[in-house]
Structure formats: C-alpha cells, structure tokens
Amino acid sequence: MFRFLVCVFFFIVLSCNTNETKTMPIKEKKIVVAHRGASGYLPEHSLESKAMAYAMNIDFIEQDIVLSKDNIPIIVHDIHLETVTDVAIQFPNRNRADGRYYVIDFTFEELTQLNVSERFNPTTKEAVYPKRFPLNKSTFKLHSLQQEIELIQGLNKSTGKNIGIYPEIKEPLFHQKEGKDISKIVLEVLSNYGYKTKNDNCILQCFDAVELKRIRTELKSELFLVQLIEFEEEESKLEAFAKYADGIGPWYKQIIKGKNEDGTWQLSNLVTEAHELNLKVHSYTFRADELGNFENFEELLNVALYQANIDGVFTDFPDKVADFINKN
Ligand code: CA
Q1: Domains identified in the chain and CATH numbers
Q2: CA of 158 to the centre of ligand 1 (A)
Q3: How far does the centroid of ligand 1 lie from the alpha carbon of residue 1, in Å?
Q4: Which residues are known catalytic residues?
Q5: Which listed site, 43, 55, 227, 239, has its alpha carbon 20 to 30 Å from 91?
Q6: Dihedral, 129, 133, 135, 136 alpha carbons, nearest 10
Q7: How far away, in angstroms, is 64 Cα from ligand 1 center?
Q8: pLDDT tens digits, residue range 74-122?
Q9: Cα gap 76→324, rounded to integer Å
Q10: What pTM was estimated for this model as a whole?
C-alpha cells in the first residue's frame, strides 16, 4: 500500500512538472532580444538589420509598431519620421504645426517611398551614434509588420530555427486620440500569422499599463505580455502588473544603481521582487557604444545578467550578448 502511495505521489509530482513546462514555454535560459534588429550595425528597424540579427543566434527580434494613415502597422520606433528618414526632403509641406512629420499622416504607399537612414538629429544633421553605419548610404526602406513577420517566419522555415518576435505597441493613447485602436489591429495581424498564445514564440510589450491590461482583459490576448517601465514610481506597482503581465521590461539603470568605492555595484531589489511575483525581467537597452561608468560591455553584461540575475536583454549588439552568454 505504502509503495502504491509513493508511486501515486511521484506520478502526481511528475504530472505537475509536465504541466508546468507546458504552460511556461518562454525559455528558462537568458534570452537575447535584437533591439530594433542588429541596430548597432545597420539602420534600426530596416529589414536588412532584422536579417542580420536573425543570423546572430539570438532568441527574439524586436518590432516597434506605429500605424499609417490607412491603418497598416509600420515598423518604426517613433510616431515621427524626421529622425530616421528623408521625409522633410520628399514631403516638405506635410509637417504638423509643431514642425514634425507624423507616421499617421502618411499612407503605407507614401511611407515606402521614404529613404531610411541611421538615426540623426534633424537640426544638426549629425548621427546620434557616430560610430555606426554611415548616414544616407545604401538604400533602406520602411516596411509593415506583416512584411517583417514573413521575413522571420520565412527564415524559420529555410533555416529550421525558431526565432521569435517581440512586438511593441507604441503610444496607444496617441493612436486613440487619432481615432485608431492600434492594439486591436496589431493583435489581429499577430493572430493571422499564428501568434495567439504563450506557446507561439511571441512576446508583446507596451509602456502603457492601462493598455497592456486592456490587451489581456478586454481584448482577451493569451500572448506572453511584458510591461515596460521607466520611472521609479512604477517599481512599486509590480503586484498590479503581475495580475495581467508575465514579465517586466525595466531600464537597466533601475536595476544597477551605481558603483561603490570598493568597485562593487549597487543593485536595486527590482529583479528579486519581480521574480517573487513570477515575473520575468527583460531589461533595456544594452549598447556596446554607450557604456556609462562601465569599463567595457562584458562588465555591464556580467553585472546585469549574473549579479542582478535579469532574464533577458534588449541589445543593439545581439552578437556580442549571444557570445557573452554562450561563454558564461
Ligand atoms: Ca521598443
């Protein structure tokens, strides 16, 4: 009888474990997210930078999403165009009263006419990251979410790998004021391409907590959701985030607070508190050409990944992070 009970007990334990693995598909290993593609090497969010990132042995490729006038989800970081395209030259009269050119004022057809370049300051015309790809060289274009998913899914087919997507809904409130429900449109595209649940290798992110909660509750998304944060006051809201999100995406300076006199680093409790609530921590943005007080990129990665124990990084240099994780 005792032996029977022991068997039953182990059977239950094993079944529970199996179930748990099934409901926690996002890998336990540290994940590398190609931030705007391999944006340290090629203009951010170009399809070329996504293809390059794909070849870097990483886990996810990021998409920032803004809607066009005709409701096509466009892969671009800002709601404005003049910091990464030649919109001011091609459509000089299409700016709003604030002088800026809005993605949402242009049709998809018009947007695809623009030339994309490395990010620059529109006033000084200087590159934001001077060591990166030169300004206004070669030819890069804007593209839709559908086109990017087809690139990544096509590569998944031809290489036999399974690299995920990591879309971000940009400025939902702005879209709402313009009469557009960006989340609904994006979720529909994702669903059409097979991204519906936590098993589908897609993580959806947003800075707007009201909107991300709405995505889970009102729009009933079953995707893996990450609540992006950037301000200190958001750090006390983890319990509320845990009710609808699966992870948080903090700025790494919310985790690594500074350097002690003995050379050790001061870490906040954010990662521990998030882990206690079963929230993954994917932190942004790790740049080899923007190191702050760190001696080198490896030191920054070591402190974040192995001292603070974050679960994943958004990086402009996906090859360097993948190499670092493989070596450690
Ligand atoms: Ca982003």
Answers
A1: 27-78+145-327 (3.20.20.190)
A2: 27
A3: 58
A4: 35, 77
A5: 43
A6: -150
A7: 5
A8: 999 999 999 999 999 999 999 999 999 999 999 999 999 999 999 999 9
A9: 28
A10: 0.91
